[in-house]
């Protein structure tokens, strides 16, 4: 077991009727608030009006930046930084899904530097400071509400890159499951696939010696498998929305990782697809993950699949290990493509093999992803081909 530091200081207000605490929390950081949001869903669901009311009642000065795209663009980040600098913003309030929160994180960090924010992604520019961030989550998926990372797209270079930075961890996050009642069945499915992937990226590890964390991850995965289809069919089922919401935060807030240092595999491979084809992140992951599992399965790795199959899907433990492993992949396929009703191939998304070579090269940075099993360019290209 490796040593690690556990330190996740995001304050979470979970549940209904917590918004009354917003003004008080924002005030701790100053008086000028930049409210950031996406394409307008927060207005449709009535959340915008409630948030503005709280801000006004607290006597705070409100600035706004809307239109943050799904797969958020670096241009939106630039726009936000300009407002932070010009208006001397004290605190950012991100209201939305992962895209809005991610973009806001880099606005918060960019407010302290003179260079272009894209340097955070390509030139490893340090992130030593950021304005405080408060988030109000409206879609259970990325865990951005409780983690230090974010992913930004640059359409000019066709890159989609992630970056972590401790100062960007939200100081406070509001998680009200009722704000996710309006999330469409498709986005609910994609979000749930994303949560599953965040867990699988850590769970599929050959240096397993944190039994406690394995049990925790299996519980999280069973939660997603149980509640995602319920939330799709009954969007206002509070129990389902609440379980998905809290699972999304705990899947990626650092807790399940323990001391494991292994790189993630499916995420960098997926980000190359969203970068070029602008597809929903969770959909790309659903298509890739079972193929990646199939590709990584061998005599050395099979025991992990057996554990997964028995503990998560309840597959008969007396079957031969390879059979359990293959059945576990089948069960995951069934979850993604039958229960969540997601498309199962790139071909259905009009993605052909023309960019696979370039995408594979970029996904591993022309080296090797040291994940569950090491993957080089040629491995990644084969995984893309399996998705056609
Ligand atoms: O833009 P609006 O109008 O708000 O609509 C959004 C958007 O169209 C809509 N939506 C959000 N909440 C809603 C709602 N519609 C109705 N009712 C609501 N309550 O849903 C659409 C998707 O929103 P988006 O924020 O893009 O989704 P998600 O939360 O899945 O975020 C995806 C982005 O996060 C990145 C992904 O790569 C992708 O760019 N990720 C961030 C991570 C992180 N910060 O740690 C990790 C993840 O692995 C992921 O890479
Ligand atoms: Zn993800």
From TrEMBL:
**GO molecular function terms here?**
alcohol dehydrogenase (NADP+) activity; butanol dehydrogenase (NAD+) activity; metal ion binding; methylglyoxal reductase (NADPH) (acetol producing) activity
What region holds the Fe-containing alcohol dehydrogenase-like C-terminal domain? 188-386
Record flagged with keyword Oxidoreductase: yes
Q: Which PROSITE patterns match?
A: ADH_IRON_2
Q: Which InterPro entries match?
A: ADH_Fe/GldA, ADH_Fe_C, ADH_Fe_CS, BDH-like
GO CC field: cytosol
- Oxidoreductase among keywords: yes
Matching Pfam families, A to Z?
A: ADH_Fe_C, Fe-ADH
Which residues does the UniProt record annotate as the domain Alcohol dehydrogenase iron-type/glycerol dehydrogenase GldA?
9-177
**Superkingdom of origin:** Bacteria
Q: Which UniProt keywords apply?
A: Oxidoreductase
Q: Which PANTHER family match?
A: ALCOHOL DEHYDROGENASE YQHD
* Protein name stated in the entry: Uncharacterized protein
Q: Which organism is it from?
A: Anaerorhabdus furcosa
The organism's lineage?
Answer: Bacteria, Bacillati, Bacillota, Erysipelotrichia, Erysipelotrichales
């Amino acid at each position: 077991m490796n040593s690690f530091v556990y330190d996740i200081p995001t304050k979470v207000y979970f549940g209904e009727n917590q918004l009354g605490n917003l003004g008080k929390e924002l005030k701790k950081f100053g008086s000028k608030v930049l409210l950031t949001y996406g394409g307008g869903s927060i207005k449709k669901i009535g959340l915008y009006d409630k948030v503005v009311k709280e801000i006004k009642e607290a006597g705070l000065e409100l600035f706004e930046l809307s239109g943050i795209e799904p797969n958020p663009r670096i241009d939106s980040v630039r726009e936000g930084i300009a407002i932070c600098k010009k208006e001397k913003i004290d605190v950012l309030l991100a209201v939305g899904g992962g895209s809005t929160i991610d973009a806001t994180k880099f606005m918060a960090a960019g407010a302290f530097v003179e260079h272009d924010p894209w340097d955070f992604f390509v030139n490893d520019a340090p992130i030593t400071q950021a304005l405080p961030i408060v988030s109000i989550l409206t879609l259970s998926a990325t865990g951005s509400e409780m983690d230090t990372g974010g992913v930004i797209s640059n359409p000019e270079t066709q890159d989609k890159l992630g970056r972590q930075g401790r100062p960007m961890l939200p100081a406070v996050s509001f998680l009200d499951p009722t704000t996710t009642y309006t999330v469409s069945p498709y986005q609910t499915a994609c979000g749930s696939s994303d949560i599953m992937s965040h867990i699988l990226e850590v769970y599929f590890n050959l240096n397993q010696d944190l039994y406690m964390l394995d049990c925790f991850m299996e519980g999280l995965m069973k939660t997603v498998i149980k509640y995602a289809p319920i939330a799709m069919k009954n969007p206002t089922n509070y129990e389902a929305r609440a379980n998905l919401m809290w699972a999304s935060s705990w899947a990626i807030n650092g807790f399940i990782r323990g001391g494991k240092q292994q790189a993630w595999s499916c995420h960098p491979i997926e980000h190359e697809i969203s970068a070029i084809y602008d597809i929903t992140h969770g959909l790309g992951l659903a298509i890739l993950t079972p193929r990646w599992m199939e590709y990584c399965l061998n005599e050395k790795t099979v025991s992990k699949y057996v554990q997964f199959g028995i503990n998560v899907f309840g597959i008969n433990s007396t079957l031969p290990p390879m059979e359990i492993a293959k059945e576990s992949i089948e069960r995951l396929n069934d979850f993604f493509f039958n229960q969540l009703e997601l498309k199962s191939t790139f071909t259905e998304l009009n993605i052909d093999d023309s960019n696979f070579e370039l995408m594979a090269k970029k996904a591993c940075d022309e080296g090797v992803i040291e994940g569950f099993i090491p993957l080089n360019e040629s491995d990644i290209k084969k995984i893309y081909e399996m998705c056609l």
